[in-house]
Amino acid sequence: MKLISIKRTVNEGASAFFTANDNNIALAFSPTKSFAGKFRCFVVASVAAIILSANASAVPSKISPVNNSAAPNNTSVKVAIAIHGGAGTILKKNMSAETEAAYIEVLTQAIKKGHEQLTLGKDGTLAVISAIQHMENSPLFNAGIGAVYTFDGIHELDAAIMHGENKQAGAVAGITTIKNPILAALTVMQKSEHVMLTSAGAETFSVLHGLETVDNTYFNTTRRYDALQKAKRRIIEASDSAFDFNSPQDLLAYQDYKFGTVGAVVLDADGNLVAGTSTGGMTAKRYGRIGDSPIIGAGTYADNDSCAVSATGHGEYFIRHNVASDICARVKYKGVSLQQAANTVLFDVLNSEAGSGGVIAIDKKGNIAMPFNTSGMYRASIDTQGKLTVSIYKD
Ligand code: ASP
Questions:
Q1: What is the domain partition of the chain in residue ranges?
Q2: What's 80-393's CATH class?
Q3: Residue 148 Cα: closest atom of ligand 1
Q4: How far is the CA of 51 from the centre of ligand 1 (A)?
Q5: Among the listed residues 262, 297, 289, the one whose alpha carbon sits nearest the alpha carbon of residue 278
């Protein structure tokens, strides 16, 4: 079992150990300063020891499909989580029952993994990582193994994580050989003095810290390859016509609006809000293009005083409008509800420029908002009452 050491620098200064294998998450915590913290860590360490000895059996590898029933909630403390697997032109009429069931199953597994960390009283960081890593390891999503292709036929991945307690954040962009980009983002947050590392430097740093590497072809899938061929045809057609890159209408016609980025936002038992996002970016991207996902404030943001947000959509618009932090700023400074703030940014600000996509957002009371201005968004949530919801289309 290969262990990667990740030092948590927030809250109690605990150390967490992640296996590189998604099915074998093992954790161990170091002592803390306060008595309450020490006692809590003793309990957590005991649980961790049991997890370590039980190993893979601690995390079920198979969970039956959801039927919107209540998820187990072992704590009286309020915790909540929301995840997304991308927004876009997702219509029921185009989806086979088999594919739909597959999405629902992976979303359900991912959110349960994240929620389990929260009910164990772990820091929200661990919940975000668990949920996102699970989706990165599924070919269904545009992150990790299902990542889209660049124009040149490779995969360049971006990811970010942010902790709302002290605004710590870590991000990587344009990486090509790290199996789980969200772990690279986490390592930047916890093991470096920087916020964002890119390309070769980010890879060197990740390797130095023991993250698992893969050949870039590991991320290959036929579905995404076909999407690249389609996008290339459109690009060639566009260059032959009077295509205007500043026209939202032209851009709408040019892009195949299925995003597929993954993200998670949580409220943990200590009242911390944490957000994370991981993506392959947009099909046929060129010239080292970076989207909104790894940009703190645009695609990922967390602030314990307002909310945590992870976005998916046409990244250029999300960058220009600083979408994630704009939603939190509206909650913080205007005092509007989370739902209202998220709706305004999605339906007024972004729609006015045809910027399409969606967000998941959570506030300090555990309220969850998941608006999107596309026809669908893969999404799931477990609220403070333990109620699990998994959805794909507009309800
Ligand atoms: N927002 C991502 C980007 O622009 C794409 C996505 O959400 O799938 O890179």
A1: 4-57, 80-393
A2: alpha beta
A3: 8
A4: 35
A5: 262
